[in-house]
Amino acid sequence: ASGKGAAAAPTAASSSGGVESGAGEDAVPEEVVEAAMQGDEAVLAWLDGGGRVDATFTAKGESGFTLLMAAAAYGHERLAVALLQRGASVNLRDSEGRTARLHAALSGHERVTELLVRCGAEIDQQACRGYTALMIAAFVDRPAALRCLLRAGADTKLRTVAGRTALQIAKKEGSAECVRALEEHAAAEAAAEAAANQAAWAA
After folding, report:
1. What global pTM score does this model have?
2. Which of 40, 45, 88, 183 has CA atoms 20 to 30 A from the CA of 202?
């Protein structure tokens, strides 16, 4: 599944060896980027020395990556917490329209996904081609992250620019557990709606 994810939406996590700093005041030294990918708190020392928490870098030709995105892509919850405490913006997008939460979902990091949602990450923000975090979790077969997003209220009816929902994506990719989770969620929603309608008629 990870191979599919890397091909579909390269993340900071797949960029080792192809890192370039941003320009001017937003430049992130390569060693700081590598530290973020490893969850090393040397990142915090750089910030304490005057580095910008939302500074960006380029990886594999794609720009706009932030330190929070790198921490999210690698599942470094502790570093992500520290960056958020220092004011990291949770909904910034890279050049492909992906947020830190999308990177966390792509890599299947449930705890970081939950953290970012609690800190105000937009649940249904769509990247290029219309993919949401829920769709990405379905595409790369990350059921734990997918269930986390469903609990947070992710919209299962949204579609990609090609017209596919998360359930259709999960079925096409053979992500059986994700299919089961999405179908169970749909059944629960239908049952709740039926019960609400019945109560309304009874009243």
Report:
1. 0.76
2. 183
